[in-house]
Amino acid sequence: MDKLSPLTEHLEQPEKENVSQESEIAYSEAEVRQIKRKLDVHLCVMVAVIYTICQIDRNNLANACSTMVVVFFPFYTIFQPVMTVIARKIGPRMFLGGITAAWGAIMVGFGLIDDWQALVGLRGALGLLEAGFFPTCVFLISSWYVRHETAKRIALFYLLGSAISGFGGILAYGLQQMHGLAGQSGWRWIFIMEGILTVIVGAAGWLFIVDFPEDARQTRWFLTHREIEVMTDRVDRDRGDAHVTPFNLKEYLGNAFDWMAWMFALNFCMTAVVNYASAYFLPIILNEGLGFSEAAAQSLTAPCYVFGSIVGFAESWLSDKYKVRGIFIIINAVVQLAGIAVLGYAKQSAVRYFGAFILVGCCNANIPASLTYQSNNIVGQWRRAFGSALIVGSGGIGGVVGSLVFRNQDKPEYKPGLYACFTAASLTIISVTITSVAMAKKNKEQKRTDLVLQGTPGFRYTL
């Protein structure tokens, strides 16, 4: 039997009673479970609520104007690396709560202004604010949990938000019934009411979201000093990067030379193309292509997102249990190909809706799967921050593509959009295959020669 390092032995054996060689902290599995339950509420559930608001806002502008959809993403993409560094410096509690309240104020502005150019400007400002949200959440989750616990947590915050936001169209339809109240149009009330709700949620986030471990020592109120030490010790055992190092701009940007980081980004970008295309234009396809009324089309999108959440949660649980990542992404992408084909070429409306069902379900399940695949295979706080910004920023590029591929002039077949989704799903399969094969070779070499991967002795990639 090969001689394994203590770190590798820990990764391959179930956690029962842990004693850190450095800190000599002893803790039981039962104690760890209790701490994780606290974190799940104050971190994963709280950011899920905020993300729900974010998704509802995006979906509400989907049918307004292509310019409104597209102008969001350049700001959202370009400012990812900068906003992630700011979040790391000032702390996620203040950062996430602050940007959420700010975009709530912007949403209220959507409902009050009359100038079209001002509306475009506010949409760009919203993109800048949201640039810091998603990568900060992924970065924060990975800072508190060991690698093989993150899939369920990322799935919780993303899929819960995605499932609930699937009912955003119904909420918007209900708020439109306020048309004429106080002399305001129904569409204005959508943004005013949802904006007020967003500000309230942002304030709650400032109160309840947990900070990074070293900041939580000063700002904690629901975690004791020992509980913070226990979680920090577990992360150090898992990958040795629980403590932040001084920021160096050259080293931070130097992470861009890692080819694997770009493959992770390509994978997420292609996943986002399918995800955003379906989110923006599925109601249009259901309405114009399948003949459902506008209200029915809005309502029929919700079950697709609920299905995606069920699939995503189940896959994430299995992924954490068996410590595998890439195979689930590939399976989802294959099912996406089938869903696109059924949606695009079947004749019966019920069959085409089934195609939309599995397409939206599996591409939503692939979002947390792709994020976990990347976060499990990078080590170092600032490398992790850059990687989170890069992969989520690439998702912004995918959002631009996805928001443009289904065009009005292509109805009712929408063939260019279908072809784009075919291509994106296929590239997802290719990118995950390439990175998984490369990482498997490195793992074999590490096992044979004690090769140091990611600058961490005993570290192995999660395939």
Automatic annotation (TrEMBL):
Record keywords, A-Z: Membrane, Transmembrane, Transmembrane helix, Transport
Composition bias, Basic and acidic residues: 1-19
Matches recorded under InterPro entries: MFS, MFS_trans_sf
Predominant location category: membrane
Region (Disordered): 1-22
Annotated membrane topology: Multi-pass membrane protein
Transmembrane regions listed in the UniProt entry: 68-87, 94-113, 125-146, 155-175, 187-210, 259-283, 295-314, 326-346, 352-373, 385-405, 417-440
Subcellular location(s) per record: Membrane
Pfam families: MFS_1 (PF07690)
Alphabetized Gene3D superfamilies for the sequence: MFS general substrate transporter like domains (1.20.1250.20)
Protein known as: Major facilitator superfamily domain-containing protein
Organism: Aspergillus keveii
